[in-house]
Design a protein that fits this description.
Blueprint (H helix, E strand, L loop, with lengths): L1 H30 L5 H12 L11 H31 L4 H22 L9 H22 L1 H9 L10
């Protein structure tokens, strides 16, 4: 039963995160006057090896192909997050480990993007990526926080994770 709950929550949290980032970049792309440019650019880089943003062709195969990778990655991250939320519900002090994990994951993500997508970074400003990730993290975190009210109750009683014995 717990596994089913974790998979369900992970799937929903992943869809929330993926949708938040996709919506953020759609807004950015529409403001720039080139709707769907970001997923087309990333799809072009992943599937066709395009490294020059000027050579990006906005077509559905590139957009849908990259979107499938994007959603799948977020569902994996959402499932890991749901697993961690279930663990924090049982052992609330592990919340601090989750925060550290999140910080390390974000740092690793930015380093990976900087290394692998360096030619495309001019078109994909790092702050747009950071804002998109922050929106996704907030949405996913809020959903999981609401699904696990026991975490908030326990942290109100023991905000620093101390036990009844004061340890």
């Amino acid at each position: 039963m717990q596994l089913t709950r974790i998979l369900r929550e992970g799937f929903i949290a992943g869809l929330i995160g993926a949708g938040a980032v996709a919506l953020w970049f759609l807004v950015i792309d529409v403001i720039a006057g080139r709707p769907f440019f970001t997923p087309a650019m990333l799809g072009s880089a992943v599937f066709w090896g395009v490294h020059d943003p000027a050579k990006v062709v906005i077509e559905y195969s590139r957009i849908i192909g990259y979107t499938m990778i994007h959603v799948s990655a977020f569902i994996i991250v959402g499932t890991i997050s749901a697993l961690l939320a279930a663990e924090v519900e049982v052992a609330p002090p592990t919340l601090y480990l989750v925060v550290v994990f999140f910080a390390i994951f974000e740092f690793g993500f930015y380093v990976t993007v900087a290394i692998l997508a360096q030619p495309l970074l001019g078109s994909l400003a790092w702050w747009n990526v950071a804002i998109g990730n922050a929106i996704a993290a907030y949405g996913m975190g809020y959903y999981l926080w609401r699904e696990h009210p026991k975490i908030a109750e326990t942290l109100k009683l023991h905000p620093l994770g101390e036990t009844e014995e004061g340890e």
